[in-house]
Amino acid sequence: MKNRFFSHVILVLILFLIPYVLVIIFNGADIALINRNLDVEMVLPAVLASQIDSKYELEALKAQAIVARSNIYRCIKEKEGVKDLIKEIKKKFPDSYYNFSVPDFVYEKAVTETKGKVLTYNNELKMIPYHKVSAGVTRDGEECFHDEYYSYLQSVDSNVDKKSDEYLNCIYINVNQLPEDLKIKSRDSAGYVTELLADGNVLEGESFRKGMGLTSSNFTAQKIGDKIRFMCKGKGHGFGLSQNGGNELAKNKSTGEEILGVYFPAMEIMDISDINF
């Protein structure tokens, strides 16, 4: 009986997803998700499933659900020049992207219990980045992008991330795959590399870490034989919500909204119905 029930549920999900899968095939996932006629609450569990592990605490999933909903509605609102918007999001926050997959029921619960809730700054929707594990403190948007627009992304303590099994990562790269003269030029206040000198040329820290497959741009480099060892702290770009940090707060009975209050102290949670489109 139970197997028959789950078979019916899976069939319903497949039938529901077919139109979106076809849109993705022909137009790409981003275009599917910013369709003005999209029922955000219906598709959000699938988005959430691509962004965070279902084994996380429910309140951590609820925090991520609000983040994902905020980003989708911002894309919908910015329907003019939306392709440029997607490029901007991916360029500045390369970990904040959407893939499409079949949702787990725990994701549906997280979405249902946060229905309509979004993060805002001065009553406006903003890009809301997230990452897996911080380096112990999150990054300041205005400092890193040299733009007051990103002042809503404030650096906050996330010291609990240092206890994560994924906090430290060692990656070895052959010297012949790297510039002959590679030096770290500057770091931000959170310790993330912002610029490197590569044979006299300036490289942007996040671009370098993505290109070389490093887990974080908060790293040190040391030559060991014919390899360079990159010791990375954290996992991801370090902006906004630390999913691991949020999960640890959830284990200590913090709600999803309280988690977001910690990682986005300059922002507030509103109902999407109160936002002027």
Shape designation: globular
- Calculate the terminal CA-CA distance, rounded to whole Å: 46 Å
How many distinct beta strands? 11
Q: Can you give the helix content as a percent range?
A: 25-40%
Main sheet attributes: strand count, strand direction, barrel closure: 3 strands, antiparallel
Could you explain the architecture of this structure?
The protein has 277 residues and is an alpha+beta fold. Helices cover 40% and strands 18% of the residues. It has helices at 2-27, 29-33, 40-49, 58-77, 82-92, 105-112, 141-145, 205-212, 243-251, 256-263; strands at 117-121, 124-125, 130-131, 168-174, 182-187, 193-198, 201-204, 219-224, 227-233, 241-242, 268-271. Strands 2-1-11 form a 3-stranded antiparallel beta sheet. Strands 4-9-8 form a 3-stranded antiparallel beta sheet, with no helix packed on it. A 3-stranded antiparallel beta sheet has the order 5-6-7. The longest helix has 26 residues, at 2-27. The relative contact order is 0.16. The model is unreliable at 8-28 and 97-103 (pLDDT under 50).
Task: Please sum up the structure shown.
Helix content is 40%, strand content 18%.
Element layout with pairings:
Layout: H1 2-27, H2 29-33, H3 40-49, H4 58-77, H5 82-92, H6 105-112, E1 117-121, E2 124-125, E3 130-131, H7 141-145, E4 168-174, E5 182-187, E6 193-198, E7 201-204, H8 205-212, E8 219-224, E9 227-233, E10 241-242, H9 243-251, H10 256-263, E11 268-271
Helix pairs in contact: 3-4, 3-6, 4-6, 4-9, 4-10
Structure characteristics:
single chain, 277 residues, alpha+beta, three-stranded antiparallel sheet, 10 helices, 40% helix
